[in-house]
Write a structure and sequence with these properties.
Elements lengths: L3 H23 L12 E4 L2 E4 L6 H4 L5 E5 L11 H5 L3 E5 L8 H4 L5 E4 L16 E4 L4 H12 L23 E3 L2 H11 L17 H12 L2 E5 L20 H5 L6 H13 L4 E2 L2
Parallel strand pairs: 3-4, 3-8, 4-5, 5-6, 6-7, 8-9
Antiparallel strand pairs: 1-2
Helix pairs in contact: 6-7
Length: about 280
Amino acid sequence: MTGLPVMKRILLMIFLAAAVMYGILLWKTNVYLLPPTAIRRKTGLEMCKLEPPFASLLNVFCRRCVVVGNGGVLRNKTLGEKIDSYDVVIRMNNGPVIGYEEDVGRRTTFRLFYPESIFSDPINYDPNTTVILLVFKPHDLKWLWNILSGHKINTNSFWKKPALKMIYKANQIRVLDPVIIRKTAHEWLQFPTKFPRKEKPKHPTTGLIAITMAFHICSEVHLAGFKYNFTDRNSSLHYYGNETMSEMIENGYHNIIAEQTFLKSLIDKNFVISLT
């Protein structure tokens, strides 16, 4: 079977899978916005005293998650084995695993991305990863439609060239409910819903959105790779590549200072534990 019927089946499968993801992410979110703070430690392992309201839905007693940022602070920390020990490992964008296993681990449960940041080289394919599209603009959904249907992709609507092919299978793809992004931007970071015409609109980094998602599906949330050195513009931005902090500082679409301040408050209140 070819043509339109095949595409309808593919898209139906994607939307059904996304609906399941929505159910997991949004189940009683008004109740469970932050992880439980009543945690007891036993023999070095964190055991959950309280469970999220949807624990029975997930069929887990205590889901411990680590959100792995792409910060240069991960270099030479040899946290790979520790990261792989978590129940859920959440990564974002095109932060590579291959070649960096000693510092960042091998496993990836969820990888959040947008069209400009997803892997396109098949060498990075992981059959055990679920990739989750963050929709910041209508063209992001159109990109997904075109890339799965084999249609030509108009790259003019993106801030940099998006991926032109999908290395993941259709049943590995989800679409993150925009509620998660809105909560991150407007409730956590207090961004306005409208920006002045002459000002670039701010939106949260993929990393902070990933942390918000983790709070909805995890009993415990730990972080790695979220610390930046603003005092040295030439310091490494990522644990991979040669980009420096100057590029992040000059990025007008994020408010990194606000995000770092917010993350510090989460750490200080023991809502999260930072490995770095």
